[in-house]
Amino acid sequence: MAGPEGDVTTVEPARLPPYVLTGGRARPVDERLEIEALVVATPVGRGERARLQFEPGDIVSLCREPHAIVEVAALLGLQLGVTRVLVGDLVATGHLSVSRPAWQAGRKAEIIERVIRGLDSIT
User: If 0-12 CB within 10 Å is exposed, 13-18 middle and 19+ buried, where does residue 93 land?
Assistant: First the structure.
């Protein structure tokens, strides 16, 4: 599009409000859906990819290879809460499968300590 002095300007595509993408829902069907959980497209999801539109279709396309939910949000430029809701819907309909991280007792404390030591080393 040309500006008033003939300069070319770009027009950003209109962004839909998050509540439109999720049908007004703020939480996924499965509220235990961790942001670090890995999701991958199922055979059903890959087969029906052409029928899925917009963000759900983008998610299934991206998840031909496993990705953490937080990665999906970052790579597609979606809010994390919106991504969790959409991924939860796709899991419920069989388009995606989810692999949850296995946490062992005491493992969280070990990870937190490693993060703290790493942060201390860079300051």
Answer: middle
**How many residues are recorded in the chain?**
123
Q: Model pTM?
A: 0.66
**CA of 41: how far to CAs of 25, 28, 38, 51, in Å?**
23, 18, 10, 14
pLDDT tens sequence across 18-68: 655 665 566 666 667 788 889 999 998 888 888 888 888 999 999 999 999
Neighbours of 71 (CB within 10 A): 17
Q: Under a CB-based contact definition with an 8 Å cutoff, are residues 63 and 72 in contact?
A: yes
